[in-house]
Each structure stands twice: as C-alpha cells, then as structure tokens.
Design goal:
The protein contains 9 helices and 6 strands; from the N terminus they run E-H-H-H-H-H-E-H-E-H-E-H-E-E-H. It has about 240 residues and is of the alpha/beta class. Helix 8 links the parallel strand 4 and strand 5. The chain starts with a strand and ends with a helix.
C-alpha cells in the first residue's frame, strides 16, 4: 500500500537550476575567480550532485595541470563561494524568482488530505529548501513533511541512496511503501537503490538523461493525481509479487 510521497527539490519541486546558475556566476564575480558557467557547461556539471562538489569538480577541470599546494585553501575558497552563492539564491527566491512546478502543490495537498505522508530527499542545503518552501507553502512548511533529508544530514550525494535511506528510516517505512519524485539520472539511481519506485518530471537541464527503470516519466505533475499514483504503484507491486 502506498503510504508516502518523497520529493527531490531542485528541478523537481521547482525549476531552480537557472537561478542556481545565476547565483554561482555571481559568486565567481564577487570572488574574482574569472569563471563563468554558461547553460551548456552547467548542464554538464549537473551530473555532479551538490554545489560544493560541483565547484570542486570544475576546479579540477580548469587546474588539471596545477599541483595542489594546499587542499585546505582550495576548500576554504569553495566554502566561501558557496556561502555567497547561497545568500544570492535565497534572496532571489524570497523576491519571487522561483515558483513550484505545475501540479506539485495540488498533489501535496491531496496526499495530506487523504492521509499520506510527505517527505523531502535532496542533496541541496537546508537554507535552499527553507527559502523555496517558505515562499511557496508558508512559514509552517516544515509541519507538512514527516521527514526532511538534505545535504547537512546526508553528506553522501546522489546517486548514493543515503538521503533516501535516512528519510525511510525517519518515517519508519519501507521503500516499497513510497513513491519518489525526481528530475535527474542521479536522483533516479539514488531512489531506486533505496528500493523506491520513482516518477520522473524532467526539465530543460535533464531532459537528455537516461531514465530507464523509472515507474513513469511525465512532463510535470499537472495531470497527475493521487488516484494515478495509487494505480501505478499497485500495478508495479503486482508485477513484483
């Protein structure tokens, strides 16, 4: 029986990536890095989960021939960049730059009314989650979710299933009792590794990903209600029996 819906955040709950890209580039200018990520490069870099990890990966790309003299200095710079980037992103969200994707809020409300639990499983930071959901749901947004897993509580990033396993443990549920909502290959692999069937809603940054194994791939959630989800979940459970 379906008991909970677990949502990724960036790209799934909202089309956030364009604003994240803008925030990264702002941080690079502020710190005089001489870096600029265009959409094509950022789309490639999104294959690395986590903002700090993404910058560290890019650092290695542009400094491939330079011997690292101080790993601590590099990490300090990345940490400073991430702080600047996060502050810019939070301000942008607070000013209305990001809204939930079609159908997300309606599906959440329907699930809550019918007694299902909601959870968040993301590799983004707590500040980013709070900024988005506070603006979209209200100051009491946290009360809507039985569990929230994020970069602070699950440092191993997707496609590692750590964040999903944490959320399942916090809810006291099995993966087979839940559905996950993701937008990327890494997210899909993480959810599947935790035994959770997954609905994919791609966006312009992830439409080219391989979504083999997903329960369904739909443009967004505007035409997806709880009856559809129960049906899809029941059919998959029957096939596995």
């Amino acid at each position: 029986m379906l008991k909970a819906l677990i949502f990724d955040v960036d790209g799934t709950l909202a089309d956030t990536e364009a604003v994240h890209l803008e925030a990264f580039n702002h941080a690079f200018v502020q710190e005089g890095m001489g870096w600029h990520w265009d959409t094509a490069l950022y789309t490639q870099l999104l294959e690395v989960s986590g903002g700090k990890e993404r910058m560290a990966h890019y650092w290695g790309m542009v400094n491939a021939d330079v011997k690292e003299l101080s790993a601590g200095a590099t990490q300090a710079t990345i940490h400073r960049l991430h702080e600047i980037k996060t502050a810019y992103y939070e301000n942008a969200v607070n000013n209305g730059a990001v809204q939930l994707r079609p159908g997300v809020l309606a599906l959440m409300n329907e699930a809550l009314k019918q007694g299902l639990s909601l959870a968040i499983a993301t590799t983004t930071s707590p500040v980013n989650i709070a900024a988005l959901l506070r603006a979209a749901v209200g100051a009491d947004w946290r009360s809507h979710f039985l569990a929230v897993g994020d970069a602070s509580s699950s440092p191993l990033k997707k496609p590692h299933p750590q964040v999903y396993l944490q959320v399942l443990n916090d809810m006291g549920l099995q993966g087979s009792q839940c559905l996950a909502f993701e937008d990327s290959f890494n997210g899909l692999r993480a959810a599947m590794a935790a035994g959770i069937r997954t609905i994919i809603t791609p966006n312009s940054f992830t439409a080219h990903h391989d979504f083999a194994g997903a329960l369904r791939v739909v443009p967004d959630l505007s035409q997806v209600g709880l009856a559809h989800l129960r049906d899809w979940h029941a059919q998959a459970s029957t096939r596995m029996a």
